[in-house]
Amino acid sequence: MEKKKTVFFCKECGNEFPKWMGQCPVCKAWDSFTEVTVSTAAAACKSKTAQTERTAKAVPVKLSVIDRGQESRVSTDIEEFDRVLGGGIVKGSLVLVGGDPGIGKSTLLLEACAKLARKKLNLLYISGEESLRQIGMRAERLGCVDDDILFMSETSLDVIEGVINKDKPDIVVIDSIQTVYREDIASSPGSISQVRETTGSLMRLAKSMPVTVFIVGHVTKEGTVAGPKMLEHMVDTVLYFEGDASSPYRILRAVKNRFGSTNEIGVFEMEGDGLREVRNPSEHMLEGRPVGEPGSVIAASIEGTRPILAEIQALVSRTNFSMPRRTCLGIDFNRVNLMIAVIEKRMGVQLSGCDAYVNVTGGMRITEPALDLAVVTALVSSAVDKAPGDKTVIFGEVGLTGEVRGVSRAAQRVLEAQNLAYDRVIMPKVNLKDIGEHTIKVIGVGHIRELKALLFEKNAQNTEITE
């Protein structure tokens, strides 16, 4: 008779425990345990048989005889997608694509499948959320109708594995992993045990055949992939699709990549017939920027290997309440609070009685500290109601004593500002020796007091800034 037992999983780290606890002893998260009923007899028998087979085939090898050559990659012909993947798709890899509902995950993968089909690759697209008719309608709208792509609407992992073993496709897309289930596990599809076991089975399948598997993962309200955190540890690459629902721009970001950099991003624009690549994100992000308005500053950021110019907007206004409000979009909230404290202490601009709002336009999220100087400039500009100049790019890290510290790749940031026809760059003084030859006007500052004298003191606009 089949036996069943109850175990508890931590939703944050994925570790399994025999009893419920208020706090996870591994990741220290509170109230993160969920109860799952699992079958033991059949699973134990199956696990013992599989272990015996694997032990018979296991042969250790020396490091010197392992092939350490470059892995072969297949280009998707979507440059922004290839950039985030590290140069293309690696055969035998397992890639997780996560994002909010409707952000464009299925659209991107379907467009990639259509381009890969032209390379005479065998593709299998499996959807557990849409019927074949729905997939056909979406493919027709995107212009991705291709006879070389096989579609299937299925949620049983046993059936999916059978089809993959029979057809032996080069690339498989599972949309989504929360709908797929294993019949020998008692819990419902989308539960922690189902997501973990199905992902583990797909990983073994990808490595043994080998076949490249893309799995789509839904995200929780906290912005993480639904299911245990262990899901991210199991796959080779984790990609997140980000973007504001009110903005057409989408950011594809790699947060884990065993075959490439984790700092790269791809920028897309959602249109009626699908996603369009944005080859020059800086130019698109700055479209419609207000001219001569206080609180608007252009900052130079580095995302992966390329510089991106983004607009930082700040609004400072007197509050009618005892507790001023602080709101941040696209930038770290605690970092902005830190900059407000530095402004009050080191520049003498009182913001304690004011509401402060900071926003990175275009739906982007930037976390690097090189935005500090631009955030300081935007906040002070709004507070004193003076524009810092429309043709000025600002970047640099700010310390607690108000010093402006150096940042990496300063030369690339200056070159990007020069290519987009800006007149002046304000940057850390310590980076002046690193920027090389340039035609744009460059000013180095060592402390934020110098920034205040340069931009906001009397007659500073007339003497220092090119309007």
What's the short version?
This protein has 467 residues and is an alpha/beta fold. The protein has helices at 41-57, 79-85, 105-117, 132-142, 157-167, 192-208, 230-234, 281-285, 333-347, 372-384, 410-419, 448-455, 460-464; strands at residues 4-10, 16-17, 33-39, 73-74, 89-90, 94-99, 123-127, 149-153, 171-175, 212-218, 237-242, 249-257, 265-271, 274-277, 296-303, 306-318, 326-329, 354-360, 392-394, 397-398, 404-405, 424-428, 441-445.
What would the keywords be for this entry?
nine-stranded mixed β-sheet; seven-stranded mixed β-sheet; Ribosomal Protein S5, domain 2; 3 domains; 467 residues; Rossmann fold; 13 helices; alpha/beta
Strand order of the largest sheet: 8-7-9-10-6-11-12-13-14
Global structural class: alpha/beta
Stretches where pLDDT is under 50 for at least 5 consecutive residues are 461-467
Distance between the termini: 82 Å
- Number of alpha- plus pi-helical segments: 13
Q: What overall geometry do the principal axes of the alpha carbons give?
A: globular
